[in-house]
Structures are given as structure tokens and as C-alpha cells.
Specification:
Number of domains: 2
Order of helices and strands: EEEEEEEEEEEEEEEEEEEEEE
Radius of gyration: 23 Å
Largest sheet: 6 strands, mixed
Strand content: 35-45%
Distance between the termini: 45 Å
Structural class: mainly beta
Helix content: under 10%
Length: 241
């Protein structure tokens, strides 16, 4: 479901909780707050002191004033630069969301189905979500392929500064199938090559690079607080001089 919503927005008391309009099974429609995220569009909520599971629509099919049991609506308030007004959120994670595809309620400037960023705004009760440009991790310099017949190789990325940056370098060895599910952490010694600084912006590769390493693939997975992970370009280790 992507990076979950930060738990500080769950029932944290007045001014620190995301508002939701929903209808719990056996209850009438009402306003409350999210208690826990249970899936991409599924939440445990508290409405009028009663807890239950609800979900939000992937297609904006749910509307306030006409919710069936187990349905809910989360509204986002668009930044004035996007035309203002409100839209239904059809998917939410981290500090990003997808807004309604329904052009009939979509104010001018909000792209249908667009990924947008949100910031929590307190109104001294249940808070609302202010929508604007989606925050993202921006890799400004990608790693490049390396050629070596021995010695040391380094791969590096440069990333714009955002909160909570973390790096995780991965290896897809030529000895394997090199499918999308064959990436492993480039940590320690693997098939004769020793890796260092694998949680920094620059990966070190040491050891005797020989023909058996020709075609190894490397990438860096960059993460940050409340943002979606980003993979760097995949680069190749080539045996040669």
C-alpha cells in the first residue's frame, strides 16, 4: 500500500487527527477520525465513540450523505494555486495521495487521478488535508556503469535534501537469473566481492573483479520520511580494462 500514513495522525487528540466521514456497520453516517491504517484504502476509524472498519472508494463512488455500511470519505482541500475547493481522496499513503477522477466535482487545476502531496492542517478539532504538489525524492545525479579488471569500483548517487534520507544499495548478480525479484542487499562479501558504505550515497566495491563478475547489476534504493521510495538507474559492472 506504499509507505503507511504516519501514526501521529491517528486519534492523537484534538488538532492532531485526520478527519473522516464514514458509516460503520450497524451505525449511521458520522464524522470521526482514523485510528489505524489497515490497507491501501481500508481504515479502522472511530465515529461517535464507536470503532469499526471502513474503506474509501478507488473511483470516487462514495459520497457524503449517502454512505453505505463500511464506506467512508476523506476530503482534501486544494491549495489556492490549484483552484481551491475540495476533492475526495481515493488513495492515501505517506504524505501523498490520489484525488478524485470525477470531473464534476474536481475544481479547475486539479488533474484527474493525479498524485498529490498533502500536509496536515489543524482546525483545533479533527484536522484536514491541504493538497498541493506531491513531495518526492529527486535523484539529481545517477550512478554510472563501471569497468574494472581488478581493484576498487565505486557507484554514487546525488539526491536533493529531504527529511530522513536513507540509502540501500542492491546487487543483481550475473550468476543469477537477473529478474526483477533477484535483487539482494549489497552487503558484506558476495561471490568474492566485498561491499562497503552500502547505506550511504556511495557504494564501494572491492576485491578481484574477474570475468565471473562481468554483467553484475547495481542500483540504489533511496527512501525518506513519509515519501515513496525511489530506485536509481541500474548500472553494470563490466570486466575489462
Amino acid at each position: 500500500m506504499g509507505r503507511p500514513i504516519n501514526k501521529r495522525y491517528f486519534g492523537g487528540g484534538p488538532g492532531n487527527q485526520i478527519a473522516i466521514v464514514g458509516r460503520i456497520v450497524g451505525q449511521s453516517e458520522g464524522t470521526g477520525q482514523i485510528v489505524a491504517q489497515k490497507g491501501t484504502r481500508k481504515f479502522l476509524v472511530d465515529i461517535n465513540g464507536v470503532q469499526g472498519i471502513v474503506r474509501i472508494s478507488a473511483t470516487d463512488a462514495f459520497t457524503k450523505g449517502g454512505l453505505n455500511e463500511g464506506e467512508a470519505v476523506i476530503e482534501g482541500v486544494l491549495d489556492t494555486s490549484l483552484g481551491g475547493g475540495t476533492v475526495n481522496i481515493t488513495k492515501i499513503w505517506g504524505n501523498e495521495c490520489v484525488v478524485s477522477n470525477d470531473g464534476s466535482i474536481r475544481p479547475s487545476g486539479a488533474t484527474p487521478g493525479a498524485k498529490m502531496g498533502w500536509n496536515f492542517v489543524s482546525d483545533l478539532g479533527d484536522g484536514y488535508l491541504q493538497l498541493g504538489d506531491a513531495p518526492s525524492i529527486d535523484i539529481t545525479s545517477q550512478p554510472i556503469d563501471a569497468i574494472s579488471a581488478g581493484g576498487t569500483v565505486a557507484y554514487a548517487v546525488v539526491v536533493t535534501a529531504v527529511a530522513g534520507l536513507a540509502y540501500a544499495w542492491e546487487l543483481n548478480p550475473v550468476s543469477g537469473a537477473q529478474g526483477p525479484g533477484d535483487w539482494v542487499s549489497a552487503t558484506g562479501t558476495i561471490e568474492g566481492l566485498t561491499y562497503s558504505n552500502e547505506t550511504t550515497a556511495t557504494l564501494g566495491v572491492a576485491g578481484v573483479v574477474d570475468v565471473s563478475d562481468d554483467g553484475n547489476l547495481y542500483r540504489c534504493v533511496v527512501s525518506a520520511t513519509d515519501l515513496s521510495d525511489v530506485n536509481s538507474d541500474e548500472v553494470t559492472l563490466t570486466y575489462g580494462s
